Amino acid sequence: SELFPGTPIQMCLFHQKATVRRYITTKPKTDCGKAIKELMAEMKDLSEIVFFDRLKAIKENYSDFLKERNPNRQFMHRTLRSAIRSLTTNLPYLYTWKRYPDLAIPNTTNSCDGSFAHWKTKVKLHRGLKKHRKTKMISYLLKNS
Which residues contact 81 (CB under 8 A, 6 or more apart)? Predict the structure, then answer.
């Protein structure tokens, strides 16, 4: 947003889900973890307001649970707290694709990821290139794709 002010930015929903999945695991044991997992499963189908309200409800319902500390005064449920913090931080960027339907912004970076893999393979074929030549090559690949 600092580099391109005024340009809408979309966070990849797949990568956001993967981040949360790493924090809560695929089979969460706590009710809070299960609630987050359920919210993430419906993420694509929900509107931004409904998603925000449900996330807010999870925070409120489990606030005491998330504030629990161990005898060393460290938070006991750090990964759940991290999952919620990640969602809260990235929320402004998760539904850009719905806010600007006329721009046809994809909600994932699948097309970019496929291109990057292709370009990386081409760059790897030319091992030993000096940095400025590698930069030239990448610039050429970006312009001609």
Answer: 66, 75
| Strand, helix or coil for residue 39 | helix
Distances (CA, A) of 103 to 13, 66, 143: 17, 39, 21
- pLDDT grade for 127, boundaries at 50, 70 and 90: confident
20 Cβ neighbours under 8 A, 6+ residues apart: 36, 40, 83, 86, 87
Q: Look at residue 75 and give its three-state secondary structure.
A: strand
One-letter amino acid for residue 64 of the chain: D
Give residues with Cβ within 8 angstroms of 82, minimum separation 6.
Answer: 23
Kindly report the pTM of this predicted structure: 0.74
**CB-based contact 99:129 (threshold 8 Å):** no
Tokens of 76: 């006991």
